[in-house]
Amino acid sequence: MDYATSFYFTATEIGLSLAGLALLLVAGWQGNKSARTVTIISVAALFGAAIFSIGLFDRATGEVAGRAFGDLYRADAFGSFAKVLIYVAAAAVLIVTPRFFERIDAYRAEYPVLMLFNAVGMGMMVSATDLITLYIGLEMSSLSSYVLASFLRNDERSSEAGLKYFVLGALASGIILYGISLVYGFTGSTNYAGIRAAFEASFSTGALFGVVFVLAGLAFKISAVPFHMWTPDVYEGAPTPVTAFFASAPKVAAMGMLLRMAMDPFGGEADAWRQIVIFAALASIVVGALGAIGQQNLKRLLAYSSINNVGFIMIGLAAATPAGVAGALTYLAIYVAMTIGSFTALLMLRAPDGTNLETFADISGLSTKRPALAWSLLALMFSLAGIPPLFGFWGKFVVFQAAVQADLVALAAIGIAASVIGAFYYLKFIKVMFFDEPTREVEATSPVSHWVVLGICVAIMSPLGYLLTVPLGEWTAQAAASFVAAM
Question: Which stretches are transmembrane (predicted)?
Answer without folding.
Answer: 6-26, 38-57, 77-97, 165-187, 207-230, 275-294, 301-320, 332-351, 372-394, 406-427, 448-468
